[in-house]
Design goal:
The protein has 538 residues and is an alpha/beta fold. The protein has helices spanning 13-22, 42-49, 53-58, 70-83, 112-129, 139-153, 191-194, 198-205, 222-234, 262-279, 296-303, 335-356, 399-412, 447-461, 469-472, 499-512, 526-536; strands spanning 2-3, 9-10, 61-65, 88-91, 103-105, 108-109, 158-162, 180-183, 215-217, 239-241, 313-316, 325-329, 359-360, 374-375, 384-391, 419-422, 477-480, 486-489, 493-495, 516-523. The strands form 4 sheets. Strands 6-5-4-7-3-8-9-10 form an 8-stranded mixed β-sheet, with helices on both faces. The longest helix has 22 residues, at 335-356. One of its GO terms (biological process) is tetrahydrofolylpolyglutamate biosynthetic process.
Length: 538
């Protein structure tokens, strides 16, 4: 914030743009179709106002939908084609810290200067033409329109677009003739909007298919695959099934994104890139699925350090002892992705121990991973590792599906959480930008966090019946931390009134327990991931 002549804080030009962008956020549920601004047909009016019809038709687009892995697939695809020498544009969602993360040019977030120029160009024209019949576009639709303007004006060689939600009625689906489409792994998510079955969800995702345009997908559940094949047949779309990447093709290098599941996304990215190259005249035929080698540029693109914050990301605390407090961030929020997240976390903390500690005591089934004592080669004990869960999810999610998957998958790898911390998100849904964050409110409604805590305690105590506090058999205590803010705690979990108070508790615990190394899995919500990143990177 700048300072006005009277000493008051004056918003910067960038903050003014974010305030204008925030004005487009509606409080309606995304499943509410009553908002006129959400009518898909209005997008054609917006394109005419912004004179984008022709520029979009000139873009050579890769369009990707899916439940899990579409952001990773788009990131790999962009990196591959950039390493092949093309000027790239990448549009993804959501952002975690800065809205400019959504728009990348040649692998780098768009500059603040360019963002402001394109933002106001679009916003002012739409505002000038706004009427009852053509209201201002909603938040995500404006961002998609802005992406089209940026990529067209910057004359990118290839634009990679990640669908925001669903496919058929997503703002990115104004594209009439992409070069190639992709569908990443499908699963249950956003069911209040997309439908309660995998078939219904697959039908929405297949809404991005265009007549005669090749579509690629990864192995899917039978119900979902049948629908994809049916939709492809109706539109004369060549639908190709892509297998996961064989790690041997990387010549000993590691993928740029962590996690075993990334080999599925990498395989799809290779096929998308190859098909794009072939259809744009840069390659005679796409690389065959069972190729025995990859071009050097593909390998570099897949193994380069790529940026995808909040997905299988490991960040030491930016505090006194960063090696003693490490955050493992993954924005998993569906049952399937929660299982993948748990597997990644379990393997990561074990791999971390193997890399840094040459030997340790074996872990038997009766002992938690946080009881593990690590030893130096000389036999002297090093710091114990303690696993903590920091969790929140939107109330439309079902914690009875998310938390059991997380706990069981970790347990199958011998990983057990000493404590689960439940917190509300810091960011608000009707404002964009860190300058808009509210002050900590001691009166914040924690009823959802208490509900999450009860689910966790039931799981920990093996109580299948669920129910209220009495049925769990847990003893809930009212504790007070150093900031005199109430915390409801029991043996296995605690509810904090704010994320900063939970981070403070973790940092205080590190100072008090200098023989312990805290490994904190943060998951359940990308909003929570973004809030944590803002706090620990200060």
């Amino acid at each position: 914030m700048g300072e006005g002549g009277d000493g008051s804080s004056k918003p910067t030009p960038y903050e003014e743009a974010l305030d204008a962008l925030s004005s487009l956020i509606t409080k309606r549920s995304r499943a509410d179709t009553s908002n006129n601004g959400d009518c898909f047909e209005l997008l054609s009016d917006y394109l005419k106002i912004l004179e984008l019809d022709e520029p979009i038709s000139q873009l050579k687009i890769i369009h990707v939908a899916g439940t899990k892995g579409k952001g990773s697939t788009c990131t790999f695809t962009e990196s591959i084609l950039r390493h092949c020498g093309f000027r790239t544009g990448l549009f993804t969602s959501p952002h975690l810290i800065d809205v400019r993360e959504r728009f990348r040019l040649d692998g780098v977030d768009i500059s603040e200067e360019k963002f402001l120029a394109y933002f106001w160009w679009c916003f002012e024209r739409l505002k000038e033409k706004a009427s009852d019949g053509i209201p201002m576009p909603s938040y995500f639709r404006f961002l998609a329109l802005l992406a089209f303007k940026i990529f067209a004006a910057e004359e990118v060689d290839v634009a990679i677009l990640e669908v925001g939600l669903g496919g058929k009625y997503d703002a990115t689906n104004v594209v009439k003739a992409p070069v190639v489409c992709g569908v990443s792994s499908l699963g249950y998510d956003h069911m209040e909007i997309l439908g309660n079955t995998l078939g219904a969800i697959a039908g929405e995702k297949a809404g991005i298919f265009k007549p005669g345009v090749p579509a690629l997908t990864v192995p899917q559940p039978d119900e979902a695959m049948c629908v994809l094949e049916e939709k492809a047949s109706e539109l004369n779309v060549p639908l190709q099934l892509v297998r996961p990447l064989d790690a041997n093709l990387l010549n000993g290098f590691k993928l740029g994104l962590e996690g075993e599941h990334q080999y599925v996304n990498a395989g799809l990215a290779i096929a998308l890139s190859s098909t794009w190259l072939q259809r744009t005249g840069h390659l005679e035929v796409p690389y065959p699925e069972h190729t025995t080698s990859l071009p050097e540029q593909f390998i570099k693109g897949l193994t380069a350090t790529v940026s995808l914050q909040g997905r299988a990301q490991i960040v030491p605390d930016n505090n006194e002892s960063p090696e003693d407090l490490v955050f493992y961030l993954d924005g998993a929020h569906s049952p399937e992705s929660m299982e993948i997240c748990a597997r990644w976390f379990s393997l990561s903390i074990k791999g971390d121990s193997q890399e840094k500690i040459l030997s340790c005591q074996p872990l038997d089934a009766s002992r938690s991973s946080h009881d593990l004592v690590q030893r130096k080669p000389d036999g002297k004990s090093r710091k114990n590792s303690t696993q903590i869960l920091l969790f929140n999810c939107m109330s439309v999610r079902d914690p009875q599906l998310l938390l059991p998957n997380l706990m069981k998958t970790c347990a199958s790898h011998g990983v057990y959480f000493k404590k689960a911390l439940f917190v509300p998100n810091t960011s608000v849904y009707n404002k964009v930008g860190s300058h808009s964050l509210p002050a900590t409110d001691s009166q914040v409604d924690l009823s959802w966090q208490f509900a999450l805590q009860r689910v966790w305690e039931n799981l920990m105590l093996g109580d299948k019946a669920g129910g209220d506090e009495k049925s769990t058999g847990a003893v809930f205590e009212e504790l007070t931390d150093d900031t005199e803010m109430a915390v409801r705690s029991c043996e296995n979990s605690a509810v904090f009134p704010s994320l900063p108070s939970a981070i403070k508790w973790l940092r205080d615990s590190v100072r008090k327990s200098q023989s312990v190394r805290f490994q904190v899995l943060v998951t359940g919500s990308l909003h929570l991931i973004g809030d944590v990143l803002k706090l620990i990177k200060k």
